[in-house]
Design goal:
The protein has ten helices and nine strands. Residues about 1-5, about 15-25 and about 45-55 have low confidence and may be disordered. The protein has helices spanning about 10-20, 25-40, 70-75, 85-90, 115-130, 150-160, 195-205, 215-220, 250-270, 280-295; strands at about 55-60, 80-85, 95-100, 135-140, 180-185, 210-215, 230, 240, 270-275. By secondary structure, it is of the alpha/beta class. The strands form three sheets. The protein has a five-stranded parallel β-sheet, with helices on both faces. Strands 1-2 form a two-stranded antiparallel ribbon.
């Protein structure tokens, strides 16, 4: 059985919701700004002390880097431009990964947001809070290195508006800066090997962070019985059964095993792990994420 998304989750539909930062704000960013107030009005949003101004590493320049940011002496020895990154910049950097797989489009009822919508909202609201606290936010891959500023939030909203055709997204650990922080938001219902690779690679570089598993309430309760057709959101997997209720215990056991595995991975690599249901308050998940980053 499949559930139709409550909102348009096609790439064009999501892009249209997060594209234009002129007034009025796009719904995704406007929602994120409003959600971020739950943290900003409290004791959070403070500026994190850096680790000094010493040079740390070079990275390839991106299209959005200004001419002032380019290290022209280093760039003159290569065929591309490079930017210096300092220790304080790394210490104040948070890289985000939000699963863009088709499975995140699931919503068991039109009254609930699709998992992907909720994941993007929480991640973008966290970016707003961190940005206002003086920290640099970007993505775990090379598309958007951590930076500050309103323009960075605009680019982040635009990139997060895209969805992939595959059932499950895969994080890319290659751009994780040493000693930075990272946040992974997903239903984590796909293969766990890429997640393990991400956390292990991060631990080797001194990266700490948080995993937030976003699930629809139906994925926790498995309220199905009788004849039911289960189909992945991409349509790649389909299973029909006449006795769905007989699958409940096995399904719940496997879900519990997966959750235990995620918790073990997080503990072994020094990360934090929590679960959020789309029927619950997004503010609670945002507060947990912010606190988790403070506990690094």
């Amino acid at each position: 059985m499949t559930a139709s998304p409550a909102r348009d989750t096609t790439p064009l539909g999501l892009r249209g919701r997060a594209e234009d930062l002129a007034a009025p704000l796009p719904p995704l960013l406007a929602e994120a700004e409003q959600l971020a107030q739950t943290v900003l009005m409290g004791e959070h949003g403070r500026r994190r002390a850096g680790a000094g101004s010493n040079f740390w590493q070079y990275r390839a320049a991106q299209p959005h880097d200004t001419a002032r940011a380019i290290d022209w002496r280093r760039s003159g020895r290569a065929d591309q431009a490079f930017v210096q990154e300092k220790e304080w910049q790394i210490a104040q950097s948070v890289a985000l990964w939000v699963d863009d797989g088709a499975s995140m489009g699931f919503a068991s009822t039109p009254k609930l947001p699709p998992k992907g919508d909720r994941a993007r909202l929480i991640a973008l609201a966290l970016a707003v809070v961190l940005n206002r606290g003086g920290e640099r936010v970007g993505l775990t891959d090379a598309r958007l290195p951590p930076r500050r500023g309103r323009g960075q939030l605009s680019r982040l909203a635009q990139i997060l508006s895209h969805s992939a055709e595959a059932d499950h997204g895969v994080p890319d650990p290659r751009s994780l800066a040493p000693r930075s922080r990272a946040v992974l938001v997903s239903d984590f219902l796909g293969p766990l090997e890429p997640i393990e690779t991400m956390l292990t690679a991060g631990a080797d570089r001194g990266v700490r962070g948080a995993l937030l598993q976003v699930l629809d309430p139906a994925e926790e309760a498995f309220p199905y019985d009788g004849r039911t057709i289960f189909e992945s959101m991409s349509g790649a997997i389909r299973h029909e059964t006449l006795k769905a209720g007989d699958l409940r215990d096995r399904y719940l056991d496997r879900l519990a095993e997966r959750r235990d595995r995620l918790g073990q991975l997080a503990r072994a690599t020094g990360w934090q792990f929590s679960i959020h249901h789309t029927g619950d308050s997004a503010a609670a998940a945002l507060l947990w994420l912010y606190a988790a980053l403070e506990r690094r």
